Amino acid sequence: MKDGRIQFTYLSQSDLLEAGCFDIEMALSAAEKGLIAYYKDEVLFPEKIVQIFNEETQERINCLPATFLKEKICGVKWVSVFPMNPVKYGTQNLSAVIILSEIEKGYPVAVMDGTLCSNIRVAAMGGLAAKHLAKKDSEVIGFIGAGEQAKMHLLAMKHVLPKLQECRVCAKTAREEEQFIEEMSPLIPKMKFVSTKTDGKKAMEGADVLITATSAQAPLLKAEWMKPGSFYSHIGGWEDEYAVAKQCDKIVCDDWETVKHRTQTISRMYKEGLLKDEDIYANIVDIVMGKKKGRESDTERIYFNAVGLSYVDIAIAMAMFNKARAADIGQKLDLQERMIFKNPKLGQYVKL
Ligand SMILES: NC(=O)c1ccc[n+]([C@@H]2O[C@H](COP(=O)([O-])OP(=O)(O)OC[C@H]3O[C@@H](n4cnc5c(N)ncnc54)[C@H](O)[C@@H]3O)[C@@H](O)[C@H]2O)c1
């Protein structure tokens, strides 16, 4: 360190898996802590930087920083969203890298896969909401959308609602539904999976928990399919008809001030004057901190919309890094062995 050595830990997705970081409980707890820290003004959270390469497909790379002041860690998520990847290449839409730096000297401490973290974060936020807002005895979960977010969401929902026993799935193609079932059934062997052959009504009607996680931009979920007592987690953009939010007894967001400026269904409703600030019951942190009640009856329909708060990704990344470090997993790499002008061989390299 004396000569200015800078070393960080590199954590691939395999490293994170091996270290036990695919851990829903850990993600839920880190997400909760992150939300509370932000609420207490202990997080620096500047505006994200967005670079869009194709307006039509919305192919983009975003840069999302956040600092946890108490933990003295500054992180950034560098995330690519290429919605056509599943169709064009049969691969994932989202991929991410996360860098964590300490803020004493400002040196990086970790460079890690951010895809696992990012996807777990989305699911953890849904899981956190379900923990407070879904009926504890929920048995049937329905999905419209069967991509990466849907898969992760199912795991988080099963974790917080262990009585779930039937999962119905609707995607754009029946093949995708089958793939979802092929990948998910070994992970939750006792779950009964139902492929709906692209029938949204079959997936959602009468389900206790309803999830939409699509790239559709269309009102796929109908209000009449949502029974009293159900919980709905909305993940994508425009996915449900306006009547869904209208009929819900409570609308809860990850952060309404952020949601209302985006393009989700309830953001559209707000911009069209069909939804007002006072129609939003709470942000999830208010419920986590006990400032507002969660579910209060067996008949309430509850709507949860998360737009994604990237400081929560950094909170989860810190938890993953700590877990990997405790297990001594990851590759230690030198960023620099010494300060530039302390390098005894520098003469060989300098070109004037
Ligand atoms: N809220 C958040 O924090 C957050 C974070 C990440 C991603 N997202 C969003 O979540 C959504 C899903 O992401 P993903 O990575 O799972 O995408 P993906 O491309 O892997 O999956 C999209 C799914 O939508 C389905 N779909 C599209 N049109 C449909 C239709 N008409 N009927 C039924 N199903 C249809 C596809 O079949 C596919 O299963 C995207 O809109 C993404 O932007 C939200």
Quickly give the structural class: alpha/beta
Question: Any idea of the CATH topology of the largest domain?
Answer: Rossmann fold
The total tally of domains equals 2
Q: Which ligands occur here? A: nicotinamide-adenine-dinucleotide
* Unreliable stretches: none
Q: What oligomeric state do these chains adopt?
A: single chain
The residue-averaged pLDDT reads 97
Largest sheet: 8 strands, mixed
Tell me the Rg in angstroms: 22 Å
Percent helix? 25-40%
Q: Note the total helix count.
A: 13
Can you say what the CATH homologous superfamily of the largest domain is? NAD(P)-binding Rossmann-like Domain
Give the name of the CATH architecture of the largest domain: 3-Layer(aba) Sandwich
Walk me through the structure.
The protein has 352 residues and is α/β, with parallel strands linked by helices. The protein folds into two domains: 6-117 and 310-349, 2-Layer Sandwich (ornithine cyclodeaminase, domain 1); 134-305, Rossmann fold (3-Layer(aba) Sandwich), CATH 3.40.50. Helix content is 34%, strand content 24%. The chain is built from 13 helices and 16 strands. Strands 1, 2, 3, 4, 5, 6, 7 and 16 form an eight-stranded mixed β-sheet that branches. Strands 10-9-8-11-12-15-13-14 form an eight-stranded parallel β-sheet. Helix 2 crosses helix 4, helix 4 (115-133) packs across helix 5 (148-160) and helix 4 crosses helix 12. The chain is globular, with a radius of gyration of 22 Å. The model has no long low-confidence stretch (mean pLDDT 97). It binds nicotinamide-adenine-dinucleotide (NAD). The site of nicotinamide-adenine-dinucleotide has 27 residues, from helix 5.
